[in-house]
Design goal:
Shape: elongated
Number of helices: 6
Number of domains: 2
Order of helices and strands: HHHHEHHEE
Structural class: mainly alpha
Helix content: 40-55%
Distance between the termini: 81 Å
Number of strands: 3
Bound molecules: zinc ion
């Protein structure tokens, strides 16, 4: 006797369609810098009409004209957490160095500066010193801490 194939019904618990799931995962990869903006743009171009169909006008236009910000807004709407792992800049995906006096090794500062896009990196490398605080290697953000 032949076993009857059980029909698998799609999950109806959530109203997120297959395409939306793909869209969400593409957006997430994009905002967390797992895929490049070229990859994203290409995918967007190929799927523009489908994307337009699942998003409201406002979000679609935001995504079209300001992709990165739009992507974050959309993920927020889907309640998808896209926070970056610690030590990674949420604006560019670059490494963040936390400088704590007496804890951060000079070698760490030098290696970070070499890899950075800082204009004054030569000075940092020469002095083996960075102001205590946190900064992104691309200079998107800098927080200075004062230790006494
Ligand atoms: Zn950055």
């Amino acid at each position: 006797m032949q076993t009857r194939m059980r029909t698998i019904k799609p999950l109806r618990t959530s109203r997120v369609s297959m395409f939306e799931q793909t869209l969400i995962s593409k957006l997430k990869r994009y905002v967390t810098f797992e895929s490049s903006s070229d990859d994203w743009n290409q995918w967007f171009q190929h799927n523009q009409y489908e994307i337009e169909a699942v998003l409201d006008r406002k979000h679609f236009l935001k995504l079209k004209h300001s992709a990165f910000k739009g992507a974050k807004k959309i993920l927020e709407q889907y309640k998808v957490d896209c926070s970056m792992p610690e030590g990674i800049c949420s604006r560019c995906g670059g490494k963040i160095l936390k400088v704590v006096p007496g804890e951060t090794a000079k070698e760490e500062i030098v290696a970070f500066a070499k890899d950075s896009t800082f204009k004054n990196k030569d000075i940092i490398i020469r002095n083996e010193w960075l102001h205590p605080g946190e900064c992104c290697k691309n200079g998107c953000y800098v927080t200075l801490h004062n230790y006494r």
